[in-house]
Please model this.
Amino acid sequence: MNNFYIGGALAAQQCEGGYLCDGAGDSVSDHMTGLVDRKRYITKEISSDYYYPSHSGIDFYHKYTKDIDTLAETGINSLRISISWARIMPNGEGEINSAGLMHYSDLIDKCIANNIEPIVTICHNDIPYILTEKYDGWHSKELIDLYLNYCQILFDTFKDKVKYWITFNEINGCMIEGVGMFLASYFKDCPNTFDMHKIADNPMVRLQALHNMLVASSKAVTLGKSRNSEFKFSASFLSFVSYPLTAHPLDTTAIQENELIFMNYCADVMFNGEYSTLAKEYWKKLGVELVITSEEEKILRDGTLDYFAFSYYSSTATSHEKQTDSVYGNLISGGKNPFLQVSEWNWTMDPDGLYNFLVKYYSQYKVPMMIVENGLGANDVLANDTIEDNYRIQYLESHLDSIMKAKKLGVNVIGYLMWGIIDIVSASTGQMSKRYGILYVEKDDEGNGSLKRIRKQSFHWYKDYISNLNK
Ligand code: BGP
Model:
């Protein structure tokens, strides 16, 4: 199938390892521990009492050459990677670390040499740690121009090599209480060691930080296009899909309200160039007043996005009454849907939800759609040097079916990038055992293992699928 990107997605901090290698600074993710009593902590100081999964990752930093060669066997034509700001600018500002830049230059060249389009996330929920202490993360407007300086380096270096950019990962995650505080990297009021999933919420701080990110994203779009008018920009959106638990009208009303908050609040700014009146009502309701200058309003109008990148894993069911059975999901949790199965991590599996999402948001924003994360986190069993992961094949295939169905209807879907195409560290839990990949990595949750790569059953399936797609 021509003009369709099919491939995989990764995030630097979940795969690279290579902590502080070649002059890199440390990042927020480097302060995130493995699971301790079912919690993932952030420690303000790095402590020998904890295991920090990002420090070693799957050593993609040193092993990417072989990994890209292996992945290229499947025929993928695209790979989403993220760049670690702290490798490029160890202090988040000031001096550039040329070794870090060289690393990504080599990685991008390696992709291109294998006919793999690099799709680059500039900021995947991670900033140089020092910026959280010096500026209180995205709450400070200082970060806007620091981010811009970082973007400028990337745009100048890769202007002839990278076309598709993602300014921020899951930017609308900032709409979620607590989670948004983490994404804003605002840890000022937290103790020295704290549960990353339980940061006390402050909507004023969170929404101001989000506004600053929206401005930074728009500025990046405008700057990028001045470097290469062919650049295509999106942020990635966390998808919110929910069904009314009953036919009670208020169940649907509750969903609609959540959609306006989780999806439209950010998407209206990023595609239409301004906050909707609904956003303004929302601030009133919360008693929040944001600092938004008229110059920033112009920046938002000028730097709108070209395509709609989003992650999709699962859906929920909503009731206007208190629900008892709940499911987790990608940052958003919600009610359990009696018609759908859940994964081992209690994430609902719902390929139809992907179809529904594509149709709905393509009709609303009318820009090309790209799925930049989708997959099944599962415990794989290694036996006889292979992994029989039919459950993953089923998951991926059913979601691809939904995409093809949406395309038939006329939705302009330009790509599908499965999450964690190689097994990597889980973002929410820090586990290795929550595996998404078609390529197995021998490593456990405590950091032990040979790091050997093994092709799973799904690896061979993906290869066949892609080859059929191209016929
Ligand atoms: C998204 C993140 C990814 C990724 C994915 C799966 O929110 O953008 O980085 O990890 O979720 O989540 P997890 O790794 O927690 O299973």
About this structure: The mean pLDDT is 97. The chain is about 40% helix and 15% strand. The first strand starts at residue 5 and ends at 9. Residues 211 and 292 are 8 Å apart (CA to CA).
